[in-house]
């Protein structure tokens, strides 16, 4: 840093120079060009006009608003949630493959039996399945396709929303997919995969692009391609994808269209409201308690007591 050399105080002639405001034992002929207090070279910082003391610099930094994205997230952050999610999904896949003794047949593992989303088991009280099923994948291809999509779409959306908001959208998309499967799907049909949450991210990135007035064609092309795959490939849960898309879109819209005034209050309220709607909808399904339901689940005949 270039600091002007010490000069005698012209107003006082040969009188001793005043001491630095922060270091009184250091005589100085320099002054802050903002507050005009005496300051030694160590306490001055170069400014657009002259030199400012460190106290004035700190005060200016406190008064300057930090630039944020349309959702209120800090600019320049690096994606952290997306790599963590990918690592968790890969780790659980490896664990299921080890338990099953097969990469292709990992759905026969104990982890799948305890964590997959089967509506009748959720109705019987195993509510954790609506979340844990979103971290299981049946086979290597299923895992790779979802993780590649998460990496491509998730990084950009996390940068726009910020880590906490992005995590909320991801979770609501996952829960939205599970809710649709629970309400409208077969009670004995197991569902797994991160694609419910991914469709929430698809909806979220589309809303963000619309808000930022970006070219929507590539995003709509990706979403359209995934919808075609969902409809054409057997075994893919259309209900799960639809639920994730609806909730992810709604959650992201609530985040990026929240008024700048009291943004955090509006965003928090909207996300909590969406979560309450999900929970209320899942509790409204009419399931007769005291009965036993039997049927084929993953090629095995099973019975569940409610």
Features:
mainly alpha; 6% strand; 306 residues; 11 helices; single chain
Q: Explain this structure to me?
A:
- The chain is mainly α.
- The chain contains 11 helices and 4 strands, in the order ββαααααααααααββ.
- It has helices at 54-63, 81-100, 110-115, 119-123, 129-132, 140-161, 163-184, 195-211, 217-232, 238-256, 263-283; strands at 44-46, 51-53, 292-297, 300-305.
- Strands 1-2 form a two-stranded antiparallel ribbon. A two-stranded antiparallel sheet has the order 3-4.
- α10 packs antiparallel against α11.
- It starts with 43 loop residues before the first strand and ends with a strand.
- The mean pLDDT is 85.
Present the secondary structure layout.
Blueprint: E1 44-46, E2 51-53, H1 54-63, H2 81-100, H3 110-115, H4 119-123, H5 129-132, H6 140-161, H7 163-184, H8 195-211, H9 217-232, H10 238-256, H11 263-283, E3 292-297, E4 300-305
Antiparallel strand pairs: 1-2, 3-4
Helix pairs in contact: 2-6, 6-7, 6-8, 7-8, 7-10, 7-11, 8-9, 8-10, 10-11
Percent strand equals 5-15%
Number of helices: 11
Across the major sheet, the strand order is: 1-2
Shape: elongated
Distance between the termini: 74 Å
String of helices and strands = EEHHHHHHHHHHHEE
User: What is the count of β-strands?
Assistant: 4
Task: Kindly name the structural category.
Answer: mainly alpha
Q: List low-pLDDT spans.
A: none
Mean pLDDT: 85
The helix content, as a percent range, equals 40-55%
> Largest sheet at a glance?
2 strands, antiparallel
Q: Write down the Rg.
A: 29 Å
């Amino acid at each position: 840093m270039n600091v002007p050399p010490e000069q005698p105080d012209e107003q006082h002639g040969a009188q001793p120079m005043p001491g630095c405001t922060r270091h009184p034992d250091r005589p100085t002929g320099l002054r802050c060009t903002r507050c005009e207090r005496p300051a030694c070279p160590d306490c001055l910082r170069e400014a657009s006009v002259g030199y400012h003391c460190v106290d004035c610099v700190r005060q200016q930094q406190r008064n300057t608003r930090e630039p944020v994205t349309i959702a209120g997230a800090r600019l320049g952050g690096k994606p952290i949630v997306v790599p963590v999610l990918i690592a968790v999904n890969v780790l659980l896949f490896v664990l299921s493959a080890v338990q099953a003794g097969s990469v292709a047949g990992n759905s026969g593992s104990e982890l799948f039996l305890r964590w997959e989303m089967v509506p009748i088991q959720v109705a019987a009280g195993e509510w954790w399945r609506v979340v844990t099923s979103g971290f299981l994948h049946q086979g290597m291809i299923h895992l790779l396709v979802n993780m590649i999509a998460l990496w491509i779409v998730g990084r950009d959306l996390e940068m726009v929303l910020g880590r906490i908001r992005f995590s909320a959208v991801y979770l609501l998309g996952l829960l939205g997919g599970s809710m649709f499967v629970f309400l409208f799907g077969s009670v004995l049909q197991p569902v797994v995969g991160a694609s419910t949450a991914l469709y929430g991210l698809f909806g979220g990135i589309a809303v963000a692009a619309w808000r930022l007035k970006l070219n929507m064609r590539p995003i709509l092309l990706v979403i359209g391609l995934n919808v075609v795959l969902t409809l054409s490939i057997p075994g893919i849960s259309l209900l799960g994808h639809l639920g994730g898309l609806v909730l992810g879109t709604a959650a992201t819209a609530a985040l990026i269209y929240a008024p700048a005034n009291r943004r955090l209050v509006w965003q928090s309220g909207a996300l909590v409201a969406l979560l309450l709607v999900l929970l209320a909808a899942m509790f409204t399904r009419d399931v007769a308690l005291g009965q036993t339901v039997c049927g084929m689940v993953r090629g095995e005949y099973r019975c569940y007591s409610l």
